[in-house]
Write a structure and sequence with these properties.
30% strand; globular; 10 strands; 26% helix; 5 helices; 237 residues; single chain; 3-stranded antiparallel β-sheet; alpha+beta; 5-stranded mixed β-sheet
Amino acid sequence: HNNNGSVGANVNFVPRQSYHYQTITQWGERELDMYGLAKLNYVSELNVSSALVLNKFQNKSYFFGISGLQNYGAINDPSLIAPSNPTTKGGGGYTWAVATAKEIYNDILLLFSTLQTQMAGLVPDMDAKMTLALSPAEAVNLKKVSDYNVTAEETIKQNFPNLRIVTAPELATGSGQLVQMILDDVDGIKTVFCAFTEKMRAHPVIQGLTSFQQKKSGGTWGTIIRRPVAISSIIGI
């Protein structure tokens, strides 16, 4: 009989600061009557507008965080490894605008090889679940066709069968077009997730003399990146 041997877990509590925000909708009795004559549910329209405003701000915080706080986004977290330069294109320069379908695929291979180097070989293989994030403008270039009538996107999906391609206009940064390849999870733990204190709280409707007001609020922690080494990126495509 032997009780030797034990296991443990490493936990690193990185400080983050939440940010809370709000918006207020207000409407009057006569205003409601006027829109009612036009068969419009004005209060419902205001509720949709307030939800959109809060969601857009929340989404922005997931990319850029909140300035002045320990609250970071998916593309400006200080723990992220500096992006690489794309490969030189035969037409001159680095951008996908002058690249062939094969040259675009070579940049994807560069992202994957960089990811393998950063992870010290812990990336299983090209079948691993990964996410490729880029701007909508650059996603169009994935439709470029090779000499064999195969698009760059088809070549990518053939060799990376579990790669998911997502687009976001925020990846068209002031420093150039950014592309990220993210290993979705390592040992069952998510690499990246968006965090919030409250997605949206609808506060009580306050009645005035001849009007109504309602506040809606939310809170964000920005984007939490557990393993920065599980993200590779290139900029300037």
